[in-house]
Amino acid sequence: MTARRPATQGFTLIEVLVCLSLMSLIATALIASLDVGGHAWQRVTRGVATIEDTTRAQDFLRQHLSALYPGNTGGFLLSSGDSLEFSGFAPGATDAGMMRYQLALSAHEPGVLEIRFRPERSTDGWSHEPLLAGVAALSVRFFEKLPDAPGRWLDQWSDASRPPPLIRLDVNFNPGDPRHWPPLFIAPRIDTNATCVFDTVSRSCRSGA
What we know:
The chain contains 1 helix and 11 strands. It is of the alpha+beta class and 209 residues long. The strands form 3 sheets. It has a 5-stranded antiparallel β-sheet with strand order 1-2-3-4-5, covered by helices on one side. It has a 4-stranded antiparallel β-sheet with strand order 7-6-8-9, with helices on one face. A hairpin with an 8-residue loop joins strand 2 and strand 3. It is elongated.
């Protein structure tokens, strides 16, 4: 007597089609979620990059402007309201470490805020580095506080013997630019004429050496 083999059972065509349809739906959902996640990651990355650009520019300006150096002659701090020129210390610089800086929008690259620099007493041309792109305008103001008078903000600083108590820098970005420039207030560390000769009689500075 010959033993009968049990009949093997497989998937019907309908079951295979249903399985393929489900797998297709799952794959579509996964691809869509990855695409959404990729766009979100790109937005976050761009946002972080722009925040880092703004923070880096503010840190640079805070570091250099807080070290600006007043002398006993005029011109250590010049501004027309939309640009700034000042003298200050810089690590590794020549001329006893004194450098001359200019902060303004570039004349050759529209929308680029750049810093120009050279040794204080040099007659050579300016070196320059881009500081921030996509800038529409720069505003520079100085805080003045006179005795027995309320403080006020000025577009220019005329006192050649000392720096202002506060310097404010505002940057406006191009229309549609999502970046934000937090108000930047800088207090110079040297608040007296550093080259003055102190007169013990008048208890004030007289002409420097």
